[in-house]
Each structure stands twice: as C-alpha cells, then as structure tokens.
Amino acid sequence: LALALQAHDHGARVRIVERRTDLFRPSRALIVHPRTLEVLRPLGVTETLLDCGEVSPSVRLHVGGREIPVQLSGFEMSDTPYPHLLFVRQAVVEAVLSQALADRSLEVERGIEVIDLHHHADGAEATLRRAGMSEGASCRYVAGCDGPASTMRRLAGVGWRGGSYAQEIVLADLELEADLASEAHVVTGRDGLLFVFAPGEGATWRLLATRSRRGAADHSDAPGGAVSIDELQGLLDRAGLQAHVDDVTWSSRVHLEHRIASQYRHGSLFLVGDAAHVHSPAGGQGMNTGIQDALNLGWKLAFAATDTPDPTTAEVLLETYDRERRPVARKVLAMTHALFWGEAGTDPVARFARGPLASLASPVIPHLLRYRPLVAAVVRHLSQLRVHYRHSEISVDGTPRSHGRPRPGERLLDSLVELAGGRTTHLHELLAHAGIDMLLDRDASRPPEVAAHRLLGTHRILNWPGTGVCVVRPDGYVGFRCADFEPRQVAAWLALVAAPAGVHEAVTPRVEPAEADQA
Ligand SMILES: Cc1cc2nc3c(=O)[nH]c(=O)nc-3n(C[C@H](O)[C@H](O)[C@H](O)COP(=O)(O)OP(=O)(O)OC[C@H]3O[C@@H](n4cnc5c(N)ncnc54)[C@H](O)[C@@H]3O)c2cc1C
C-alpha cells in the first residue's frame, strides 16, 4: 500500500491486487518506529497515524517479582520529529494507507490472486484469478508484496534462505479477571516472554506469548490453529501474572521463520516486505522494514517507468533497490535472531538469563532506563534511523567535495532552518512532499534556473553558511552534495536517478544564442 502511494505520487500508474476479500484481518504488528513515521510523512499519512495511535506509550516490565514502568517516548533524539514509538495496530496502519489510496482515487482490488507471472523485455504478464476465472494483466514492473509464502518469489524461482524457529507465537484477544493497570505489560519468565496489552481487537486484552512450537513447521501464510483457554491460562500462570482468563474471542498460533530472499529483483519483479525477508517479531521490525523497503522502491519504479531518459540508467537505479535494502534486512535478521534468543530461547543459558539472572539484575534495570543516551541509542538502532546507503551508486559526492553537509547516502537529519522572508521551519516539514529537493547553502553562487517542475523543490537555507548544494532523494536520504552549486553536476545526478526529463531541465542552465556566440 505504501509502495503504491509513493509510486503514484511520483507519476506512475499503479494497480493493486489483493487475494483477501476482507479489509480486516487480526493485527500482528503494533509498533511503528520513528524512521517509519518519517518516511511515511511525504505521503501525508503520518499525522493520521499519530492521531489513531498512542504516541506516549508506556509498558510495565515484570521481572523477578518487580514491576518496572518504562516510558517509550521523550527519547533524546533531536534530529527526528518523532522521538517516540507509536503504538498502533497493523489493521489501522493498513486502513490509513488504504484511505490515502482512496483519496487519490486508487482502489485495492480485493479477491484477486496472482497465480502466474512471465517476464519479457518490456515488463511482465501476470495471470490473475478472480471468482474462479482467470484473466491476464500486463505491466512494466511488479512489486511482490505478497508475504512470506510469496507466490511471486516462488514463480520467479528466487531462493529463500534461512530456517524455521523451534518456537511459535501465541496470539489471543481475551477477557481477563486481573488487577492490571490498563497499559502494556511485559513479563519475563524462564519459558519466554509474555505480553498483555489493552485494548485487544475483539476484546479488552491482547495476549502475545512465545512457547515451543507444537507440531511441524507450517510454511503457508494461513492463520495457525486456535489455542485452548486452558493453554492460555497455563501461559499466564507460568509467567506468574495474576490473571484469570474469562473469555477468549480469538486466538491463533503463529509459525516463525528467519529467511531472506537470495535476490530482491528478478527481471521486472521486485520483492518487498515479508516476501523479501521474514523474521521473529522481536523488536517490532517486520512491518517497519517492509514499509521502508517500499519507500526505497516506489519512487524508483515511478521514475524508471514514466520518463526514462536512458534504459541503462534506469537499470542502474533499479538495481540499487537490492543493493541498498538487502544489507539492511541481513542486519535486521541478525538482530531479531539475537533478540528472539533472549526472548524465547529454550536452551539453559537463555532460560537462566530470563529467570534467575533477570531477577538478580532487576534492581539495576530502572537505573539503566534512566540513562537516556543509552535508551536513545537502542531506539535509534531498532528504528533503523542509522541505516545509510553510502556505498550506493546513486550516492555521489560532487567536486569540490563538501564536508559540512550530510554525506551522500545518509538520512537527512531534521533541524530548524531559516528560509527567505524570515521564515523558520523544520527541514522534514519543508520536504514532506513527493519529489526531489535541492537545498542550497546561503551563499551558493547563483540560483538555479528553475523551470518549475512538481518533482523538484529548491530551497535556499539561510542558516547554512557556504556555497554548496545538497540534493535529497524522495525517501529522505541525501543523494548528492557538493561544496559549490554547479548546475551541470546536479543535472548529472538527476540523470543518474532517471528523474523525469523536465527535472533535469529545471537545473540545466539554458544557454541563450547570444551567450553561445560570445563563448
Ligand atoms: C506476532 C507478530 C507480531 C508482529 N509485530 C510487529 C511489530 O510490532 N512491528 C512490525 O514492524 N512488525 C511486526 N510483525 C511483522 C509484520 O506483521 C509483518 O512484517 C507484516 O505483516 C508484513 O507485511 P507484508 O505486507 O510484507 O506481508 P503480509 O502482511 O503477509 O501481506 C501480504 C498480503 O499479500 C496477499 N497475497 C498473498 N499472496 C497473494 C497473491 N498470490 N495474490 C494476491 N495477493 C496475495 C495476502 O493476502 C496479504 O494480504 C509482527 C509479526 C507477528 C507474527
């Protein structure tokens, strides 16, 4: 959904097909990280998400008989407008994105399944099944956002490396008789972690617990079987949470895998989200990483599809999706693997760490949590605020090299900036729209010969002394910087990202015939 929004906003025609007929399915993700809120902002959905969720979430951590309050907001992170986690259900995120599509007159065509896909030099031919009937569809590019059991990945023969976890997740919406404050509770126990938070989707509480997997690994994306009320009560009792299960409205077992696609691109097919990588829910990474994948790709597909100056350039641009995003997923896999061992490992060391060791350490935990730089560093890491694409083909340093501005490939940090007319604003607010933005230092030699183009914004930043320029990609990463503003170098970078031709012209100085004669 995020990819479709971004591709559309950058000029692509998009079609979205979804096998499920219902909009609603029980949520899995609950946490949206600061970086995801940042990248969604140009799509105009972040404010709505903030309104729909909890921006100052707190949890009560139950360790060794202690209850420790943990605030998940107010982190020491002045370079982001969102120094907090957002608790919002995945179903709400999907509804907000679907509404944003509807506002652009784009529809998610439900009840349509992709069953076959063939590539040719100019795109792909898909076979779709709708109400038992087959039909064909042609397109230039296909984004396979079809989850861990991806049909597209299988049809393309792309490898799916990794394995299954010996543990599974139990999810349930239930009514509890308990003396629990109405917020989130995390209980550490020898057997694993147990989360209880309100409100559930179909009941007052949602429970999430880890336990050893029952039965063989299930590689489909069908919902797992239900869990009995006795089993749910057993999980609460073993965790030591004083709560009695009164009623269960919904429950499910979730099989877990840690896998990554051996390539993110196959011809005109691009794998995105869980179709490209899947891991344990530890750290709340899956949906966040998927959205960040999507917003790395949407504008590239749009630029490559709409007004490509040169097919080879478009190829280089499209290749950067795999080059930039697969290394991110590899790190996420490693991190979630380590976190999940801590959360759910069944070996004696993990059990000891969660049990007696955690109890012993519990008096120190509140002090650690008060050390704000440490907490901010952890959130930065989990949020992928540190992700960079410095080695990407489209991260370019111009000549003369600038040293004062963010490096190409790095995320543009938020800060207060001064604009003409004494206006002050936040940089991220200034850039919260589709397109590429060119930021000129205060004394940049001359203004560009801007022929207005909706995909190129130009801003002179008066509190940035210097003569340089910094060009920011649609996903908020710096693409080009130079110590001097030299229009031809900027135009060369724009040509590299296959930006629509009008954008190049916007910065290429027009040489009047008289000037040319003089020269
Ligand atoms: C218990 C749990 C908790 C989690 N918590 C978090 C969290 O807090 N934060 C976080 O970031 N992530 C979390 N995740 C991970 C997150 O839920 C997933 O990463 C996310 O759902 C992936 O989204 P996706 O769109 O890539 O794939 P999916 O959500 O799997 O969606 C794929 C879609 O493709 C459709 N589809 C499949 N095949 C076809 C086809 N052939 N034709 C047409 N349509 C098709 C399916 O119907 C489905 O709607 C959690 C996961 C679990 C299991």
Summarize the structure.
By secondary structure, the protein is of the alpha+beta class.
Describe the protein.
The chain is built from 15 helices and 25 strands. It is an alpha+beta fold and 519 residues long. The C terminus is likely disordered. Flavin-adenine dinucleotide binds next to strand 1, strand 7, strand 11 and helix 7.
Write the layout of secondary structure elements.
Elements: H1 2-9, E1 16-18, E2 31-32, H2 34-40, H3 46-52, E3 58-63, E4 66-71, E5 86-87, H4 90-103, E6 108-110, E7 112-120, E8 123-130, E9 133-139, E10 142-144, H5 151-156, E11 160-178, E12 184-189, E13 192-197, E14 205-212, H6 229-239, E15 243-261, E16 265-266, E17 269-271, E18 277-278, H7 286-306, H8 311-344, H9 348-361, H10 365-370, H11 372-383, E19 396-397, E20 416-419, E21 423-426, H12 427-430, E22 436-440, E23 456-460, E24 469-472, E25 478-482, H13 487-496, H14 501-507, H15 513-518
Helix pairs in contact: 1-7, 2-7, 7-8, 8-9, 13-14
The site of flavin-adenine dinucleotide (FAD) has 30 residues, from β1, β7, β11 and α7.
